[in-house]
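Q: Hi! First time doing this. I have a protein sequence and I read that you can turn it into a structure. Is that right? Here it is:
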Amino acid sequence: MPKATPAPDPRLMLITPRLRDESQLAPLAALLAEGGVASVLLDLAPGDERAQQRLAQTYAQAVHAAGAAALAPAALDTRLVGRAGLDGVHVAGLSGLDAALAAMRPDRVVGVGGLVSRDDAMTAGEKEPDYLLFGEPAADGFVRPLDWRIERVGWWAEIFNLPCAAYVAARDEIGPLAAALPDFLCFGSWLFAAAEGPAILAQARDLLAAADGPA
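A: Yes, that's right. Below is the predicted 3D structure, encoded as structure tokens:
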């Protein structure tokens, strides 16, 4: 009997739409079924603490069933991470990074985004989070231009060993961003509304592998 081909390392990240109920479970499950997703950032809406915990647990179960890590925004009460069985947090900017690292390490993941300048990125890297994310939407929805994201990811990937992720804002950005050699490609809420979402993830997985070249 021939040996099965090893599954590729998961190198895709998802950021959910704002979660107020279970309406995004089906779109999330469809995306996770494509394979290759390493982590999912659950954008939990503020609200009743118990309801928020139940919602986090429900989504985390779906994420874990697919073999991915479930993360929460670090701005939420960090006690929710443990109570809901989440795997870590994502920090938006430098200001909360030290506190997140102190609260989560050594057992849980800490990632950081919202890094506008190279100096901010290097300062964050010196603190050794698990990954840096470049170009994700700001609180007002603004996404930095594709050229900026390509430049920043290419600079980081060439010089530093700490993993980095590139935010993908549209399907036609996958190829150029994969060519910058990030460790991960990250997709936001727009993907959950796309009928071809699973196909987009499959394309991203293939383009990342092709950009790496032969083993």
